[in-house]
Amino acid sequence: MSGNVQRLDQIPKSLIRRVATGIPMFDVSYGITRGYKGEEFIDEYGIPLKKMSLWSGESGVGKTRLAIAICAKLTRTPYSSPRRILYVQNESSPSDFHQWAAPFNMDTKQCYLTESNDPEEHYRIMLDVLPHVMVVDSLNMLEDECSPKALRKALMIWQKASNHIGTHIILIGHQNERGLVKGNNIIKYLVDVICMLRKAESNMPKSITLKKIYEDSVVGRGIFYIEFVKNRTHRTGNCVIFQHTDSGIEYKGISSPGELSADASKLKGLAEQMDRLQSTLKLRRGKRSVIITPNITIPQAVAPNPVINVQVGNSGLQCRGCGRQNVGNAKYCSVCGKKLK
């Protein structure tokens, strides 16, 4: 065939190589690679090399601390030789960053730090360091007046460097009030993995696992989770749960996509019941037609037995005491016996 058309069976398959952090459920959520490369059987799970991730979340959720914790794990993982890290940041001094990294027991000989905000300079540094993972913390370090065209150029440079050197690049972005990060419409199409970091709150139980961990902790102190909302190399929906501690970050558990909390199950059941009852029922008794219109209100706190108010076509006065809608010309309430006014 002419042109750039190729038959699929003539195209060699490429296996995605990965680096493990030592947090099994975090690594599995990033993805698994199994297959043969020549005569060698590859069985790896973890962060995919030659790919890019976007970690986004509101200010203070723990994006930088989690990134430092993951980098520290990579520099001393027991599953393989230490991995080299290139950390790009200019939100604090190098000495302050070193102090932040101290509780995580990082092998500092394997971590390189730069304050440059020039993607082309990052490429040159990567050629010298040959890192397995590079963290850009954060995208806001680019000039505020950076145009979409310039941002796309920066992403393309990072992507080229990632493919050339075999590095995984983690881009950290701060969400604004609308839940968007800098260059959201451009970045989401160019990265391979998108993770959302969220604080665990008492009024938003994500799953049975997350709710139990939140309740078992001291008033949910420091509980947050990272949710994989896009992943080109693996399934999405996993929520890996962590907790901030004085000595760093502690892994707490994982919530799978199909897991519902008990409250969510009750709400779903009530919603289905409401859908069934909302249809108007007509009961014909001889020549008289009685119309029953159920009205179910789902409160914020799930009630086990929702109250159903029934209105009859020939309705009378409503009792001010118990709220009963009486029928016809009744002068006294049929429930509480109070006189109707």
Written description of the protein model:
The chain is an alpha/beta fold and 341 residues long. The protein has two domains: 11-259, 3-Layer(aba) Sandwich (Rossmann fold), CATH 3.40.50; 263-310, no CATH class. 26% of the residues lie in helices and 27% in strands. It is built from eight helices and 17 strands. The strands form five sheets. Strands 7-6-8-9-5-10-11-12-13 form a nine-stranded mixed sheet, sandwiched between helices. The chain has a two-stranded antiparallel ribbon with strand order 1-4. It has a two-stranded antiparallel sheet with strand order 2-3. A hairpin with a 2-residue loop joins strand 14 (281-285) and strand 15. Helix 4 packs parallel to helix 5 (148-165). The longest helix is centred in the middle third of the chain and has 18 residues, at 148-165. The protein is elongated and about 90 Å long.
Topology:
Layout (H helix, E strand, L loop, with lengths): L17 E2 L4 H7 L1 E6 L2 E6 L1 E2 L3 E6 L5 H13 L9 E5 L4 H8 L9 E4 L4 H11 L3 E5 L10 H18 L2 E7 L9 H7 L2 E7 L8 H9 L6 E9 L7 E7 L2 E8 L6 H17 L2 E5 L2 E5 L22 E4 L6 E3 L14
Parallel strand pairs: 5-9, 5-10, 6-7, 6-8, 8-9
Antiparallel strand pairs: 1-4, 2-3, 10-11, 11-12, 12-13, 14-15, 16-17
Helix pairs in contact: 4-5
Can you tag this structure with a few keywords?
single chain, 341 residues, alpha/beta, Rossmann fold, elongated
